[in-house]
UniProtKB/TrEMBL annotation:
Transmembrane segments: none annotated. One of its GO terms (molecular function) is kinase activity. InterPro entries: ATPase_NBD, FGGY_C_2, FGGY_Carb_Kinase. The keyword Kinase applies. This is Carbohydrate kinase. Belongs to the FGGY kinase family. It comes from Bradyrhizobium japonicum. It holds the Pfam family FGGY_C_2.
Length: 471
């Protein structure tokens, strides 16, 4: 079959905090090709920022490569939360701020006074820099540029505009711990309205809706047909969540893992969300509430393991000795409290220190498994659990978590591209009538030996006690 005769495919631009990825998939979510590069922020501007021009160049160049092998019928972008661009026409008026940018103390103090309440936006002010705080900094420090802005686009919608689509907002991105959206009343947050920033938000569209066709310039540059659809993009973890919804697994407990570990569990009452314990509310692509936990486990794992590399077999062998010695890593190794109030930057190791690469990695595995277990408890998880993303490839982590939750089945996703594949499934979703079959899972066998399980459970209880009551 020639390229021109093949069924049309969808190209997904996946803008992650660590990597930039272009994935080509079938409309029912089967991956066909993936290319990626590191996503490196720039320090050349007034603050830590994304290299939007560089990202776009790579994306267009890579599209030009894949169009030689695939007939692309649609393009969609997916991106992490707390990223957005002030735009005039189709150009940024200021660089897109990286949420790890360090804000001036006066901005920190000013924002603490005006930030919307937790019961409006369902996330605190610590951790990643919220879009509300980014807007305050940009308006205060660069008033002339800010005044030129006509629209404010979350990252995925910015790239839709650049490709030829119309300007739009999308609910999963607006609601993703941004402080710019009132999740209870489904409107711009009180902060946005009081500051007059709500004027910058364009009309909302549903994720997967067609926003237009590729521009003539993009078609010429990439080889895409002018008829190629530009779709309304989506928040990355919500794209992953949609993948399971599309497969008929909406009620499953999902651990979406990478730099951040996000636990998703539908059905928890909103009054059970605790602002002091890493609990947030996400809104899915259909506007439904999804209570969640949000902690920087991926970052902490790297810090605890010290980037040591060991085989799964070696790590599994190291776990019993670590448990027997009582060696534990206690939170938090980043500047966010996470699951335990007051834990920010208080991370420490108790017990004999690890000596081998396998022991260091094993210590990180235990920390991540205990953190995930705590998240699932907070969300009231009682059904099937799926580990998706980077930690799905971490067998010791998966087996430890399965041992901690003996009454629940645990599976790992066989795809390492769940976010991009979830975004791909948004194409033509409104006409899909049956669940997709492209979500392939593998059951996890818990850690063996009853003694090991008992020791693991006891270690978890000790970890909770030490973390709740640090000396």
């Amino acid at each position: 079959m020639t390229r021109s005769e093949a069924s049309p495919r969808i190209a997904v631009l996946d803008i992650g905090k660590t990597n930039l990825k272009l994935l080509v998939a079938s409309e029912d979510g089967w991956p066909l090709e993936t290319l990626s590069i590191p996503n490196v922020p720039t320090t050349a501007g007034p603050y830590l920022a994304y290299d939007l021009a560089g990202l776009e160049e790579w994306f267009l160049d890579t599209l030009a490569v894949v169009t030689q092998r695939h007939t692309i019928g649609a393009v969609i972008a997916t991106a992490h939360g707390c990223g957005a661009v002030l735009v005039e026409g189709d150009e940024p008026v200021l660089p897109m701020m990286d949420y790890d940018a360090v804000s001036p103390p006066e901005i920190d103090q000013a924002y603490a006074r005006i930030a919307p309440a937790y019961d409006e936006v369902f996330c605190g002010i610590s951790g990643a820099m919220r879009l509300g705080k980014q807007l305050l900094w940009q308006e205060s420090a660069y008033p002339a540029e800010f005044a030129r802005a006509k629209i404010y686009l979350t990252t995925a919608q910015y790239f839709a505009l650049r490709l030829g689509g119309c300007a739009a907002s999308e609910i999963s991105q607006l609601a993703a711990q941004s402080h710019i959206w009132d999740l209870c009343h489904h409107q711009p947050s009180s902060l946005m309205r009081k500051r007059g920033w709500d004027r910058l938000l364009p009309e909302r569209a549903s994720a997967g809706a067609v926003l237009g066709r590729v521009s003539e310039a993009v078609a010429k540059r990439t080889g895409l047909a002018r008829s190629t659809e530009i779709l309304c993009g989506v928040h990355d973890s919500n794209a992953n969540l949609f993948r399971y919804k599309a497969a008929g697994m909406a009620d499953t407990s999902i651990l979406s893992t990478g730099t951040w570990m996000i636990g998703f569990q539908r059905g928890l009452a909103l009054d059970k969300l605790d602002a002091t314990r890493g609990m947030v509310l996400n809104i899915d692509v259909d506007g439904e509430n999804v209570p969640s936990t949000l902690i920087a486990t991926g970052r902490e794992y790297d810090l605890i393991s010290r980037d040591h590399d060991a085989s799964d077999a070696a790590v599994l062998t190291a776990l019993p000795s670590l448990l027997a010695l009582g060696t534990l890593a206690l939170p938090s190794f980043v500047g966010d409290d996470g699951l335990f109030p007051g834990a920010a930057h208080r991370g420490r190791i108790i017990g004999p220190r690890p000596e081998t690469p396998a022991e260091w990695q094993g210590l990180a595995v235990l920390y991540a498994a205990f953190s995930a277990n705590r998240c699932l408890d907070a969300l009231g998880s009682s059904k099937h659990i799926v580990i998706d993303g980077g930690f799905a490839a971490n067998l010791p982590f998966a087996r430890a978590l399965a041992a901690l939750r003996p009454s629940q089945s645990v599976s790992v996703s066989q795809s390492r591209d769940g976010t991009a594949l979830g975004a791909a499934l948004l194409w033509r979703r409104f006409s899909r009538t049956i669940p997709v079959s492209s979500v392939v899972l593998e059951a996890v066998t818990p850690l063996g030996e009853d003694e090991c399980k008992r020791t693991l459970s006891a270690a978890y209880q000790s970890w909770i006690s030490f973390s709740e009551h640090p000396s």
